[in-house]
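User: Hi! I have a protein structure encoded as tokens and I'd like to know what sequence might fold into it. I'm fairly new to this, so please keep things simple.
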């Protein structure tokens, strides 16, 4: 009597759990959500990750106006001037007649970015305004139809690649120059127009991928409208198309939505695209947001408060000095992310003095200390008040921004991790002593700039423990 009942109970139980087991315990069954559950880890992805620091370049028609329209200066982001000043599209695009960047020299840009220590450059191929830096066959609004007439994107790709820098393409899906664009799809007419817009976007991306096959990444923007969110399947289709056309190419999470309208992360909470791109002008909290260390991500930042394109008046907001730019780069790397630092050359193709000085300063710092940045990631050490840790295997870098009053830097190691040595980047030994279990004091160094102390650690059996604690 007992036996068959038990069997029935077992079968019933199994039947109950079967759907969960077979669907990997996901809440929703999604066709257009995340395409993998783990970090992507092929060679191209590792290359993207190991570069750690890149430049962002915003360059378009807005770079000529520099935040000023008909004598009035608008304090908002310069690349959004068309919206602030309510300029009709035809009037905005008529500026193409004056697009002639006589001071532009792609090789000079490439040398500057290389010398600044950047390993890649993200270029705006087309921002929201719709003006294309390449001679696209899909629209009249391109460099080809300006007094300049040259393929400026092509010149940049070649020059950066010649300097050994990877090129990433920024691309705005939202396009103010195309009357078929819709923010919402409220009626048949909207849907028909938006279908045309989708074909137009695909054609532009196909051009970019085939004309410039050395491109390493597509960074999408302008994907927040209901029209795009409601087309999750299409965003996956775009990602797949680019990956077919450009082997190894990486794509940011901002492109993606799933069929339920979730963006960046699908409805099951899984990251879409290859890396998270939501940290724009902000960074994860070093204590509360440690889960970011489990995935790939890239932050981007402006030097003034919020100016990506060239604005002629930088006195309108706080401008970060180079050391603060560096602090944000280090913050990102210390949590396993990349940082793209923005530059906004003017309409003549020249960088402002502040940006040249920033590039020089960063380059000088990176030449001496880049070892603590490139190829480094999250160290698994408790956040220190003197600065940040980064790590490459058993080498842990202390990057000291805040010199303590006492001449000691407190280092708390993860349980079981021992410090075996401490030195400066040039190899000069630095004094340290164990002060308690899993705690050390490391001597400070006299320096007017942020400096690096290299620790050799012995993780012993503790390797991986801090990571486990996060999952
Ligand atoms: C909002 C917005 C856009 N995203 C930044 C990366 C800039 O391009 C800005 O205009």
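Assistant: Happy to help. Inverse folding works backwards from shape to sequence: for each of the 471 positions I chose a residue that suits the local structure. Here it is:
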């Amino acid at each position: 009597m007992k036996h068959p009942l038990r069997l029935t109970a077992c079968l019933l139980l199994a039947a109950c759990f079967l759907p969960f087991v077979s669907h990997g315990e996901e809440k929703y069954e999604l066709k257009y959500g995340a395409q993998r559950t783990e970090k992507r880890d092929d060679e191209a992805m590792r290359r993207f990750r190991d570069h750690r620091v890149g430049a962002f370049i915003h360059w378009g028609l807005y770079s000529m106006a520099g935040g000023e329209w008909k004598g009035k200066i608008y304090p908002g982001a310069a690349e959004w001037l068309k919206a602030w000043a309510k300029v009709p599209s035809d009037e905005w695009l008529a500026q193409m007649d004056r697009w002639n960047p006589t001071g532009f020299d792609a090789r000079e840009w490439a040398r500057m970015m290389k010398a600044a220590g950047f390993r890649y450059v993200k270029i705006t191929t087309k921002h929201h305004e719709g003006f294309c830096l390449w001679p696209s066959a899909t629209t009249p609004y391109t460099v080809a139809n300006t007094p300049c007439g040259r393929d400026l994107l092509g010149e940049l790709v070649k020059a950066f690649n010649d300097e050994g820098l990877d090129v990433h393409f920024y691309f705005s899906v939202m396009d103010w120059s195309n009357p078929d664009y819709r923010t919402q799809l409220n009626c048949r007419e909207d849907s028909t127009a938006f279908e045309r817009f989708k074909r137009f976007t695909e054609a532009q991306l196909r051009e970019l991928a085939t004309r410039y096959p050395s491109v390493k990444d597509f960074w999408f923007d302008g994907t927040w409208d209901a029209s795009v969110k409601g087309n999750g399947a299409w965003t996956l289709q775009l990602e797949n198309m680019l990956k077919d056309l450009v082997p190894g190419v990486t794509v940011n999470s901002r492109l993606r939505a799933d069929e339920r309208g979730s963006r960046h992360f699908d409805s099951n909470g899984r990251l879409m695209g290859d890396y998270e791109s939501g940290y724009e002008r902000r960074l994860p909290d070093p204590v509360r947001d440690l889960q970011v260390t489990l995935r790939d991500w890239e932050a981007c930042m402006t030097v003034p408060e919020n100016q990506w394109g060239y604005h002629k008046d930088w006195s309108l907001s706080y401008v970060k000095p180079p050391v603060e730019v560096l602090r944000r780069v280090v913050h990102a790397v210390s949590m396993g992310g990349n940082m793209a630092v923005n530059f906004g050359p003017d309409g003549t193709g020249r960088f402002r003095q502040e940006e040249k000085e920033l590039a020089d300063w960063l380059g000088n710092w990176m030449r001496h200390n880049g070892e603590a940045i490139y190829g480094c990631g999250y160290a698994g050490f408790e956040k220190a008040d003197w600065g940040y840790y980064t790590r490459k295997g058993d080498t842990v870098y202390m990057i000291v921004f805040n010199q303590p009053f006492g001449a000691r830097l407190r280092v708390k190691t993860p349980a079981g991790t021992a410090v075996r040595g401490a030195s400066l980047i040039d190899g000069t030994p630095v004094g340290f002593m164990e002060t308690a279990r899993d705690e050390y004091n490391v001597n400070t160094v006299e320096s007017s700039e942020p400096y690096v102390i290299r620790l050799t650690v012995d993780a012993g059996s503790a390797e991986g423990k801090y990571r486990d604690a996060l999952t």
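A useful reference point when you look it over: The pocket of H76 is lined by residues 77, 79-80, 221, 280, 300, 308 (CB under 6 Å). Feel free to ask if any position seems puzzling.
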